Amino acid sequence: MKPESGTGQARATSAEKRLTLVALAIFILGQALAALIHFTAPEVWDGVAYEIVDGKVYAVPAYESKRYRLELERIGGKAAIFADDFNRWFSGLWKGKKLAKTVSLLSIVASLALWRLGSLGLFTSDRASVFPAANNGKAQKSAEAEHHPHAPP
């Protein structure tokens, strides 16, 4: 049976379809943007320091050198090292090719959230089944009255 136009069920289906389409659009645009970023962004190098191990010279980022980490620990302790590592990790998510992964993940999460919101059935006219406490039991009393018409109210 097809719902009549203008009824709550037809509006609910329409709202759910719109949310699903918006979720799909966010997913497609997010993945396209992530691909564009991935293929056009350069690899990011911060600063370079050199360490000599067993007579060989290795280039490392300046913040990973032993001298930097020892000085940081001397000044602020282990908490400063942890905070510095976390700060560099988080700020690194928004640079270069890692930005593509970040955009991809955020678009997936946003599209799944919108899709789930549309599939919960929050847009139906009978909200008593979804949120029974919202009607303070009025929907339940009216349903009981329909089943037991001769019972006292």
Q: What's the tally of helices?
A: 4
Determine the mean pLDDT.
80
Helix content: 55-70%
How many strand elements? 2
Strand arrangement across the biggest beta sheet? 1-2
Largest sheet: 2 strands, antiparallel
| Portion in beta strands | 5-15%
Low-confidence stretches: none
Distance between the termini: 33 Å
Q: What is the general shape?
A: elongated
* Series of H and E elements: HEEHHH
Count of discrete structural domains: 3
Estimated radius of gyration:
29 Å
Q: Briefly note the structural class of the backbone.
A: mainly alpha
Written account of the structure:
This protein has 153 residues and is mostly helical. It folds into three domains: 1-42 and 96-122; 45-94, no CATH class; 126-153, no CATH class. The protein is built from four helices and two strands; from the N terminus they run H-E-E-H-H-H. The protein has a two-stranded antiparallel ribbon. The radius of gyration is 29 Å and the shape is elongated. It starts with 7 loop residues before the first helix and ends in a 6-residue tail after the last helix.
